[in-house]
Amino acid sequence: MDRSFHSPLLSSKSPFSPRSRQHLSAKRLSSVVPSAFRKSSRLSVSGKSAQSIQVILKSPYNAVERFGQPLPVLITEALTFADRNVVVSARISECGYAWVVCGRRLLIWQYRQAIQYNTPQRKQILSSQCFELQLPQSDLAHRAELVSVFISSASHSPSCIAVSPEGVVRYWPAVTHEGVSVEQVVDLQGQECDSLTDIGEMGCILATTTCSVVLVQPHLSTGRHSLSCHTLRTPTGWLGGISKKMSSFIFGPMSSEQSAETRLVRVLSVQENEHTWIVYVLAGHSLQKWKMSPYESEQLIFVTELNRFVRDGFHSTVWENCGGDQTETDTWLLDIQSDKDNIILLAAAVNMHVSPQVHYALISVQTNTTQAPNNIRDFLVLKMSGLYREDNPADTLSYRFLLCGTYAYLYNQKSITIIKPQEEPDTLEFSSSQDFLLGGSICVNTPIFFSRNHGLVSVSSNDAIADLNASMVSIGTPLETSFNECVAGNLSVYNMDADEIYNTYKDTVNQLKAAFIFHIKNQQSACRDIIHELFLSEGQPIFGVDAPLDKVVIEICRELLDDIPAGDPRWSHETQVGVGSSYSMQVLHQLQDKQKALKLFIRFLHENELWNRLAAVTVRDTVLASVNVISECSEKLVATISLKNISNNSVLEKAINRVIKQSEVMSENGLTKQDVFYRKVTKVYRVFQELTNNCEEAAHSDLNPDEIATLISDSNEILLPVLKEVIQHRQQNVDNFSPHPNALSLAPDYLPWTAAAGSEGLNDTLMLQQRLTCNYGARIAADNLSRNMLYDQLVGLIDIILDGYKSYLESIKGTSREDILVKQYQVDRHKLIVPLIIDKEWERAAVLAEKYLDFEALVIICESLNNQQRLDEYMERFSAEGFSEFVYSWYLQENKPGKLIDRCRTVTKTKNTQKLKTFLADHPSLSWIQNIFDNKFAKAADILRDLALEENELVTRQKTMFSLSKLAKLAAPGINNENYIDFIDSRLELIAFQEDIPDYVLQHYGYDTIKPKVIPPKDLIHLYTCVEYKEACEIEFKKALDLLEYIDDNELKNELALNIWRVAILRDLWLKGNIDSPLEILQNTLFFKLAQLALCLGADPQNLLPSLDILMDTPELSELQESKNFRYLIKTGYEHVHQLQITQ
Where is the Nucleoporin Nup133/Nup155-like N-terminal domain (predicted)? Predict the structure, then answer.
């Protein structure tokens, strides 16, 4: 790809050095045009050779010349012989056709071939044929604005729709067949039609002078053509039915012209993508934005009133020093054009209390969002004026304008005024009384007008007239460069030589810069060639983390942010000028120009299909989406501009001085530390770090507490507004910097620089500043005013910290790290908010807790204030987030079941009834309460019984549960409860057994006697029969026998029974006493006392005593077994028990 000059390539001057901003001379023209465009062509843009150009008007800077082929004879005759009472109008279409309306005659001809880039161009000859159609009958004058000629995708022959002023619509499917047409009448209720605006394949927008809007669509079905007319419904009036008095109160007074009646100014259509159109309707000072698509109903995006913005803009720039009231200014909106993401309005204003001089301005309004604009983006007062005459206001208010790249062309019937950046307006006047302009349009990046005497004419710079190929666009006016972004004219990128950069530097970064500059100069073929060479020569570009495209784009963005000023001589020995350099001498303007340069670069990425190919890069040891890194660059510019707007602040100056070391400042060139600091936009975070470091040093210094608190407050007043502006910018542009789904497939994090930890982020800084503000600021402030201010600042700091944390969590949703980081976030969130609760700053804590859903903080606040109403409001407000369930769990964790009982009493009156019941169902220890309140006693009894059986911690709690269960069962109607009551009584008896054991016995075995736990029956038997229970007699041993009923395991039960009898035997001295009276000895033993008591109390004699052989078969009784006396006595005892059994 050859982009070499036909002049010496290299010079001592860097290719990055900006060229002079004067217009290129014809001598230099060839050095600007890439070689690919310097081939000779038989046809110029106008279809003529350079030698045949006919100049009609000329000024020192611009000229009006004939454009295209001569007018068809029919057109010439119609213009020449038209009756002076007949209204003649004309219109030029971008599709290559123009038409003249003369009475009911509609004359259509083709003035140029449509140019398609990236497709081979065949040698084509313009058709000189003129088509004449007959317009509908009308009592009012037909106008060319009510005609639309277009070429549909299904036909190569142009179609036409024309509307009479009364609303009769006539559609010709092909202008070549005059006799084939479809007609329909639109019911406009007496309104007069004003204009017809093409919206591609969807049809046309018909607008009336009083702002009714109708969608007119041609259809073809089964070979038959038809029309459909659909009125777009808008709010009642332009202000939704609000009275003029109220609308004046809201939007400010309206001009006399507007207040009389809101009249249509213009309808503008802009194609958003292949199937979507945006339609703007400007009437008076009101603007509507519609979205049109063939696949869905029309959508009214917004309606907004611009009167106040326009009036305030004129007053502040023109009449601010003249005194008087702003309401004395009358303003008009004259025209509207699209400029990328904005619209440009032509406005006029006069203040008759000062002078009748009319001032004009071009106003940029951002409209690429779904929100109505709330301010004006740029306001440029033009260096042109006129005199307002109330008897004939049209003399000064009849201007229209065209946008062509960075140039604007204001025109009326008698003149064209060219507005170029950094130049005085140049006016070309048509002095002939018979000659006037009938219309204007942009053709192949050239402003085209229709002169009654000369036909189609174009405007071009005197030094840019050259013979260019039909695929080439005008050198002087970049086709797709935003007028809004270039009207200041300070960016050096417009004067850089892309060819020199391309041929001198072969690295990828500078090659892409060259493509960017070619794009800005609208040399799209050269731009696309470079991009293809860099990234597409081997097929699709590499898509992944740290891919070449991503790394290059990020590097250019960062370099752009740090580029030196182009016009400041003090920087001349530093580095070369870059694409973000500015000619301005003022730092603020330099930063604003970098902002514009970054937007241009982003637009370049979009329009060359590179934006959606961006994936991810590694930044701060974290994988971030590339578009989010570009967003960081934009945010840092916002932060730097905001810092620069802070004037005469000693705290900020000290922080800047700490950032910029003395060695970094080139004092010999006169540069200051602020010059160096504001140049390095990518390092702007360092000033925030130094602000906090300064506060920390002060907090540990000998300064008194008031001075420390004041310094912290002053630092916060710098830090907080700047970072809030950054976050606001981030939120407003979230859609503009959304990663492509392919990029999201790489699972990049979104960790904003304001939330990132480490030396290149602000998280550590903000956390430290938050602690300093709390501990050394708010808590030690001397007066209430300072204390309140510091607490407000503390809330702001916590808000920023949590906002960044939250953004990060949203980016990792669904990953394996989510659960861990969410738990960490919840802990950190509470730690940040708790200091406010400790300090009883309830409302400030509540604001943060509500925003970031810290439910624990909200509950603590409500409990501390004993504000149940507020708690109920939170339950309602955060119902979907599970706040109610959290409250119930919190009550349980904090051992406050009484609170839940209270809620059970009142919850039936709230909407949280079902949630509480569901919660209680999972917590049976409380659900029985709800059942009691619901009179479900049987269910409550069962729950209590089950809870008591599961209870093993507190015997008192178990006893209470069994007792309540018995009461609830008795209260249950119509149920046989005998068996149930018997069971409960037996369990209560078991508890009674435990309660009868002396404390000293329990304490000996380590049991808690203050809060006794539930002791199993097996252990109770042991406690009743243990040797430590010295007072135990036959009664206690009988209780041990009774406890055997609660042992379900038969084997265990038998073993325990044997053990009871064996222990009873060992309690007595069997070998002492008079053996001659065995019964007397037996009656004094515990063994036979226990047996006798058991028999007296109804024990089964057959099963009372175990088998003697089994009883004696134990090591504990081995010593006694050796005694014949013992064997005699024990056998006598068994015999005596047997006799007692027989006796009974």
Answer: 70-372
DSSP one-letter string for 1110-1143: HHH-SGGGHHHHT-HHHHHHHHHHHHHHHHHHHH
Q: What is the pLDDT of residue 920?
A: 63
The pLDDT score that the predictor gives to residue 305 is 92
Strands 62-66 and 147-150, by their bridges, are unpaired
SS3 524: helix
Q: What phi, psi does 362 have (nearest 5°)?
A: -105, 125
**pLDDT grade for 411, boundaries at 50, 70 and 90:** very high
- Retrieve residue 773's tokens: 């503000």
- The full 3-state SS of 102-161, as one line of letters, equals ECCEEEEEECCCCCCCCCCCCCCCCCCCEEEEECCCCCCCCCHHHEEEECCCCCCCCEEE
- pLDDT, tens digit, for every residue of 159-188? 999 999 999 999 999 998 898 999 999 999
pLDDT in tens, 474-496: 333 333 444 444 444 578 888 78
**Contact predicate 810/825, CB 8 Å:** no
Instruction: Supply the pTM of this predicted model.
Output: 0.54
Determine the average pLDDT of the residues in 557-573.
83
**Angle at Cα 908 formed by Cα 906 and Cα 913, nearest 5°?**
110
Under 8 Å between Cβ of 1095 and 1144: yes
Q: Select the more confidently predicted residue: 107 or 443.
A: 107
Q: 494-521 burial string, b = 16+ CB within 10 Å, else e?
A: bbbbbbbbbbebeebebbbbbbbbbbbb
Residues in the chain, overall count: 1144
In the block, residue with structure tokens 């406690």: 1023
- CB distance 673 to 690 below 8 Å: no
* Sequence-separated (6 or more) residues with CB below 8 Å from residue 417: 384, 409, 410, 411, 425, 426, 427, 428
User: What DSSP string runs through 420-451?
Assistant: -TTS--EEEE---TT--EEEEEEETTEEEEEE
Phi-psi region at 488: left, alpha or beta (left = phi > 0; alpha = psi -120 to 50): alpha
Are 388 and 356 spatial neighbours (Cβ–Cβ below 8 Å)?
A: yes
> Position 815: which residue type?
T
What does the pLDDT read at residue 989? Answer: 92
- Strand 55-58 and strand 330-339: the pairing is unpaired
The residues facing 361 across adjacent strands are 347, 381
Q: Are 954 and 1014 in contact (CB under 8 A)?
A: yes
DSSP structural state of residue 290: E
Q: What is the CA radius of gyration of the chain?
A: 47
What distance lies between CA 1017 and its chain's CA centroid? Answer: 65
**Token duo for residue 362:** 């071009």
Which residue has tokens 């038209």?
Answer: 82
- What is the spatial distance between Cα 111 and Cα 67, in angstroms, rounded to a whole number? 9
For residue 207, is pLDDT > 90?
Answer: yes
Cβ pair 283, 265 in contact under 8 A: yes
Alpha-carbon span 580 to 592, nearest angstrom = 10
Contact by Cβ (8 Å): 477, 411: no
The band of 535, judged by pLDDT with boundaries at 50, 70 and 90, is: confident
Residue 834 CB-density burial (10 A; 0-12 exposed, 13-18 middle, 19+ buried)? middle
Q: Which amino acid is at 354?
A: V
Strand order in the sheet with 378-387: 330-339, 342-351, 355-366, 378-387
Lowest mean pLDDT among 43-52, 387-396, 445-454, 489-498: 43-52
**Confidence label for 244 from pLDDT (cuts 50, 70 and 90):** very low
Residue 399: partners with Cβ closer than 8 Å, 6 or more residues away: 334, 335, 346, 348, 360, 410, 411, 412
CA 372 to CA 380: how far, in whole Å? 21
Task: Locate 276 and state its tokens.
Answer: 């979507």
Phi-psi region for residue 489, left (φ > 0), alpha (ψ -120 to 50) or beta?
Answer: left
